[in-house]
Design goal:
The structure is a homodimer. The first copy, chain A, is mainly alpha-helical. Chain A is built from nine helices and no strands. In chain A, helix 7 packs across helix 8 and helix 8 runs antiparallel to helix 9. The structure holds a DNA duplex.
DNA sequence: TATATACGGGACTAAATAGTCCAAAATGAG
DNA sequence: CTCATTTTGGACTATTTAGTCCCGTATATA
């Protein structure tokens, strides 16, 4: 040991379609299971069974459980950001924000508020346990918030939001309301708190609108 | 088995001072360890060692790990509610709310945002795993929110808040901002997001004040 | 087609962790 | 003081779970 270069000369390591597919199957299974049971409460045997693979495949594609979890953090992060890009990339008006809110609430209400946010729950479980995972999650949250703040910037530039509005802070507040909403909804098994929390954050943003519009957020 | 009365005739079961003290020591240790490492990542041997007890004592005072965790949920719930009663029972003005916010932020900043809320992190870790724990946590959150909404009710009754303010919703929003703030702060290892989130919620409450006061929340 | 290497099945080992047990010491009621 | 009961130490077992290994099969490149 110790004769491996720090900056590995990246051994060729061929890769086949089948291999890629297996790796994907493992990640998908881990994603599903760890979403409903949590990371630490999910065993590798659970993952093996759900992904229709074997022990050797798990360890062929991932060094150990920690690496699988880290891969999952990346995997979920990519999924969430992709989904959120769809809903936020074109954001230019307050009503767009309301539509975004409604989509999140709707999705969460399908589970009666259960399970929470795939990113948020990993953040709670891993932040005090795996520094690398924590740092990836932190970056993912930052990227997510940036999608929001970019939209708010566009709204400010177009004159929809007043100049003194601070997009970054508004985005952070909205993200906190979202995460706290997920947490309370999960604990209560009821989406209600999530709706209330998001509406509060939207009201706050609304207070920076140049021409205050109608009442309801729906 | 099965010959035990449903409504147990509660065998006398004497209890000694020493026994109570040991039980307390175990709970204290579990509380400390599980706060920094999380519930699932803390083993009974960790608890035994930290509490200077033995295996038999753990199982003398708690049926199994799950029962210990449930006892901890009660324990922490009581601690938090007691602490919060101190800060909220006399709440009658917006500046009281600001002081409350500052105390929470200050406490959390001592850990640079780490560890999050003792209740919130348990809620995330246990809600999808132990129905009884989830339900206790849900009730504890409700009681906590009630401390806030009671204060807001007093403010509304005294005319500080406008009639159309809805204390329950405002309290839920504030709690979500707090929990989301804890989560983001823990992930970022920085209290910043928690401050921003709480300030958003306070601004929102401020917008219901009858006589808008000064600017800063500090 | 040859052959090196990725990929896979699944039994096996190792480690961590929960949970049991019993004999002894402390304690409190009568 | 006596005696039943609680409390305790700590070795022991059981179970769960991570991680290893061997050997066979599929796949890609030459």
């Amino acid at each position: 040991m110790g004769d491996e270069q720090g900056s590995a000369p990246t051994k060729p390591r061929r890769i086949s379609q089948r291999g890629i597919a297996t790796r994907e199957r493992i990640l998908e299974a881990a994603n599903r299971l760890m979403f409903v049971r949590g990371v630490n409460a999910t065993t590798l045997d659970d993952v093996r069974e759900a992904s229709q693979t074997s022990k050797s495949q798990l360890y062929h594609h991932f060094a150990d459980k920690q690496e699988l979890v880290r891969a999952l953090v990346r995997y979920r992060g990519a999924l969430v950001l992709q989904r959120e890009r769809g809903g936020l990339e074109r954001l230019r008006s307050f009503s767009g924000l309301v539509r975004w809110r409604n989509a999140l609430v709707q999705a969460n209400s399908l589970n009666n508020g259960k399970y929470g946010c795939g990113l948020g729950s990993m953040a709670v479980e891993l932040s005090d346990q795996d520094e690398q995972a924590r740092s990836m999650l932190s970056e993912t949250f930052a990227a997510w918030e940036k999608l929001i703040s970019d939209g708010l910037h566009r709204m400010r530039d177009s004159g929809a939001l007043r100049q003194e509005a601070e997009p970054e802070k508004l985005a952070t507040g909205l993200m906190a309301a979202l995460q706290g909403g997920y947490l309370l909804a999960n604990t209560a098994h009821d989406v209600g708190p999530m709706e209330v929390a998001l509406d509060m954050a939207l009201e706050h943003i609304k207070s920076f609108l140049t021409e205050p519009s109608g009442e309801s957020t729906r």
